[in-house]
TrEMBL record:
Family matches, as InterPro entries: HAD-like_hydrolase_domain, HAD-like_sf, HAD-SF_hydro_IA, HAD-SF_hydro_IA_REG-2-like_cap, HAD_sf
Example GO molecular function: phosphatase activity
Gene source species: Mycena maculata
Protein name stated in the entry: HAD-like domain-containing protein
GO annotations of cellular component type: nucleus
Amino acid sequence: MKIRLVTFDLLHTLVTPRYPIHVQYARAFEPYLGPLNPDSLKRSFGIALRELQAEKPAYGGDDPTSWWSAVIKRTALGAGADAKVLDASLSAIVPQLMASFSTKEGYKVFDDALPILHTLHNDLRVHTAVVSNADYRMLSVLEDLDFPSYLSPILLSDGEGVEKPAPEIFLRALRRVNGEQETPIVPAECLHVGDELECDYNGAMNAGMNALLLERSGAEQQEHGVEGQSIQTVKDMYEVLEWMRARS
């Protein structure tokens, strides 16, 4: 069945941090907290992020600034920052980091991202959309990085109140695209591309869609699901196009 809608994850799929997140955090922390060990920051950021994702999924209905403030605080403390100094500095550090990760200062676009969107839209006449467990700041990031307006709708878990891997967020994207279609698109005519096995691949498959797991060169490799599960993987967006053309 021909693919009529391709949805994309954002982070590590279409865009990636301009510099490693722990490096950007270290730069923001240093004027207030002094130098912190980069490896400790990388480790503590990962722990803090997973904790908040478990405690308050989809940002817990809070202002994302509060959610990220907790991540930032736990990251600094986990890397050995002085608690009193951190408390006195957090009101300056948080806005700086929130602003940095709202523009191309914090992110860059993968070289193959804009070309595939152009090909899908102009050559293959395929609709494109975003399904991401991100907050509202990614809207300004996409604009700052010159993503096309036809990449729409953009569903972010912050605004939707639901996040991947829940099938609902994928189906919600499909319903919004179908609001403009004479002939409705069905899930089997949809493809989702993302870099996380559970959130992206399994989430889309459970919504009845096709899925490709993106494993970019240099990215951390992940285990391929349960025994016997067949995972379709691609290394870049050009392989996504090859997969689609093979089905045409």
